[in-house]
Amino acid sequence: MSNGGLSGVDLNLTVALGALLEERNVTHAGLRVNMSQPAMSAALARLRTHFNDELLHRTGRSYELTALGAELLPVVRQALAATEVVLGQRTTFDPAVSTRHFSVVLSDYAITVLAEPLLAALAARAPGVSIDLEPLPPVGSDLSNHLMRCDLVIGPLGYRLPGLRNVIFQDDFVCIVAEDNPRLRDGALTLDDLGAMSHAALGLGGMDGTPADRMLTELGIERNIEVTVQGLLPLPVAVSGTDLCAFVPRRLADRCAGQLRLTIAEVPFTLPELVEAAHWHPSRAKDPALAWLRGVLADIAG
User: Fold this and answer.
1) What is the pLDDT of residues 34-48, one digit of tens each?
2) Would you say 196 and 268 are in contact if contact means Cβ atoms under 8 Å apart?
């Protein structure tokens, strides 16, 4: 790490640095660590001098982390977590008065399931809390940096995502087609139909190889993939008004079916489940704020 690292920063200044990087706001950071705004501004000035970097820069009406600030955030979190373990500290979290800023990485599909009830729950239970919802990078990407930088990564089990985890919600896959698809017979498709039809599927860069994809391969169905997309959310749109079929989570199909004139087709086998879990870095295992957020997610998903 460039520009001095943490070696020349005392513990109190490290605590201030952690609050500033997480809150991205001098006033909120001061409230979090019980420092006045002038004292926090002075701490920020000292930190900027030490690192020879602004750390926070104004973007419109808010502040964003500089490149170095983003690089420092996971290191500072680890340092403070280690200090708490050594000193035996036990922190508390009061959602009613907190101004904590959370960052959560999740898939487009998980956003459709969680975003609306999550924001409503935060508004009701923690009105001072704010949150970033960032897109999940393609499977195959190195998620270690995301786990270090962000509070939670919400993604499916079975893709070897690192970190600690707990299940948030489950869904089952279904087959969707347009309501007037000519191969539908009494709302059903046969194995021969699925082998002969053109499919819309996740392509390279997306969640390639879903549990449904793997089942089709095990059944010996060689799909004619005519359209590929980079997330689950576009699949119903790709199928609408065409003779294509696709396999998507049921919650997504239920939400889109009426508007896009789609139907869930019966297939002659039981489709697998999709299990979405929250993943977090071990250094934040004892963070009471994250334990609270995971509980909220489990509540709303249920």
Assistant:
1) 788 888 888 899 989
2) no
